[in-house]
Specification:
alpha/beta; Glycerol-3-phosphate (1)-acyltransferase; 8-stranded mixed β-sheet; 8 strands; globular; acyltransferase; 1-acyl-sn-glycerol-3-phosphate acyltransferase; Plipid/glycerol_acylTrfase; transferase
């Protein structure tokens, strides 16, 4: 598989689904550096949207069960995604794999809201709480010229259908509490979507120095808050404009 295959697959998938995509602030996309892309998350189309919008393949951390389901496993492998491990190995394996990719100057994608917004359908303009793993990764990875790039996916027109019963997914990941409930897994299909690139947060030697001892928590909080606020602002501005002109 060539390094461009995930990008080509992403573009083909969006074209086949008839998705209209508008990309804003492309001048903020870093060049010639390793990048951790951080984005909001509501559905299976988010990974190909990010790749097509940024014009770059992404190695995206995805839910553990995706690596256990036949056919789905093959698809996400073609897309360059890497499933998270079982809970007892998850954190260490994520840091090791993602750090290795960044050291090769590949781009790593993270959806810090986790699986919650995929299982419980949310409104397109809402943003959940961020897990902090991506911030620890960026601050500890021994990689020069590393940027954390917040990106907002604003679904302007979509259809929602239901996929499989949530409890079926327990067959592939019994450790996930979200799958221990009734109901169907929702599936969001973007018809018209805006992808807005935020300001990159460059990791400097000063940031890494602050990521030591008692200062580490503050350094992580600053990075998480900055990315959350940037994506939240982009979503708010986009949907405010939509309401004004609708």
């Amino acid at each position: 598989m060539s390094s461009d295959s995930p990008l080509q697959i992403s573009r083909s998938l969006l074209a086949a689904m008839g998705t209209q995509m508008f990309v804003y602030h492309e001048d903020r996309i870093p060049e010639d550096s390793a990048v951790v892309v951080v984005s909001n998350h509501r559905g299976f189309m988010d990974a190909p949207l990010l790749m097509a919008a940024l014009g770059h393949p992404l190695r995206i951390a995805c839910h553990h069960y995706m690596g256990q389901v036949p056919m789905l496993r093959e698809f996400i492998t073609q897309m360059g995604c890497f499933p998270l491990q079982e809970p007892e190995y998850r954190q260490q394996a994520f840091f090791e794999q993602a750090t290795g990719l960044l050291q090769q100057h590949q781009w790593v994608g993270v959806f810090p809201e986790g699986a919650q917004p995929m299982v419980h359908l949310t409104e397109p303009d809402t943003l959940g709480k961020f897990h902090r793993g991506f911030a620890h990764l960026a601050l500890r990875a021994p990689v020069r010229d590393l940027a954390v790039l917040p990106v907002a996916i604003a679904s302007l027109a979509e259809t929602t259908t239901s996929a499989v019963p949530l409890r079926w997914l327990r067959l592939f990941d019994p450790s996930e509490p979200l799958f221990a409930q009734p109901g169907l897994h929702p599936m969001v299909i973007h018809r018209r979507v805006a992808v807005l690139v935020g300001h990159p947060y460059w990791i400097t030697a000063k940031h890494r120095q602050q990521y030591q001892g008692k200062q580490a928590k503050a350094a992580v909080n600053e990075l998480v808050t900055t990315c959350h606020d940037e994506i939240s602002k982009l979503l708010y501005q986009t949907f405010q404009r939509e309401r004004m002109f609708s």
